[in-house]
Specification:
Blueprint: H1 7-39, H2 53-79, H3 83-115, H4 123-142, H5 148-162, H6 165-175, H7 195-235, H8 247-259
Helix pairs in contact: 1-7, 1-8, 2-3, 2-4, 2-5, 2-7, 3-4, 3-7, 4-5, 4-6, 7-8
Length: 261
């Protein structure tokens, strides 16, 4: 993984994959929405309200997925000092928080006609709300220090401690008696959901995953740009960017200047 620590290598890889990620996201998202809204049947009990599932469930999955990714990046930053791991964790946090917030909002919209209330303090909803607070706490913590390195270490520690909440969210409906329905897709004996609903759901999950990686690449690129400029200004190398030096070389100069401080 350390070969991707070089900004120019990461950026070349991101540039190569970006058109494919955009195409996959647009195709799967458009197809999933069409199938979910017009092809998938209404539920025999919930009616058309069940169509909220095609947004609610993928956002719940992505909220958990992003937090696990953030924790892995935190571990890589603390243990192996991977230069891009901290940047990736910082870039992931607001995206994961957005997915988690959307999950809670769509869950409330779905729950009100089904349960007769917008919110209940059961295990699944409460643990998902805690996940949102963990995201917000991470973002506040990494920016709470004048020294960015101290903020990164504190944020990585919080991400690693908070990852214990992920299995609690996943298995809360099995461990406790809750209003939330049990798992119907990720089951040991296979999905219990009808294929006419499962296919749009899987397509939307792929689209949301692609969207995450697109935003991650954009945010990492932006952060690398900012760090490169700061490093070049501090080292006096900024004047070398006269248009004749390649962008990749400038990224490497900025990275090397920053590493040598």
């Amino acid at each position: 993984m350390h070969r991707f620590a070089k900004p120019s290598v990461f950026l070349k890889l991101a540039d190569t994959l970006m058109p494919w990620m955009i195409a996959i996201t647009v195709i799967t998202g458009g197809t999933g929405l069409y199938l979910g809204l017009f092809w998938s049947p209404a539920d025999y009990q919930q009616g058309d309200t069940v169509r909220i599932m095609y947004i609610h469930v993928p956002t719940a999955w992505m909220g958990l997925f992003c937090y696990v990714g953030m924790a892995i990046c935190g571990a890589m930053s603390l243990i192996w000092k991977h230069p891009l791991a901290d940047i990736a964790a910082r870039a992931t946090a607001p995206v994961g928080a957005m997915f988690t917030a959307l999950c809670l909002i769509t869950g409330s919209l779905w729950g009100e006609p089904m349960w007769g209330t917008w919110w209940v303090w059961d295990a699944r909803l409460t643990s998902m709300l805690i996940l949102l607070f963990l995201y917000l706490g991470y973002m506040a913590l990494v920016n709470a220090f004048d020294d960015p390195e101290r903020g990164s270490k504190a944020g990585s520690a919080l991400a690693l401690v908070g990852v214990v909440n992920v299995p609690i969210v996943k298995f809360s409906v099995d461990w406790w008696n809750t209003l939330h329905q049990p798992a119907s897709v990720a089951r040991m004996d296979g999905p219990s959901i009808d294929p006419s609903m499962l296919w749009p759901l899987m397509l939307m999950a792929v689209a949301f995953t692609g969207y995450y990686f697109i935003i991650l690449a954009i945010r990492v690129r932006s952060e690398l740009n900012e760090r490169r400029i700061r490093a070049l200004q501090l080292s006096g190398l900024f004047e070398q960017g006269d248009g004749t030096t390649s962008g990749s070389a400038l990224y490497d100069q900025g990275h090397n200047a920053g590493a040598g401080k």
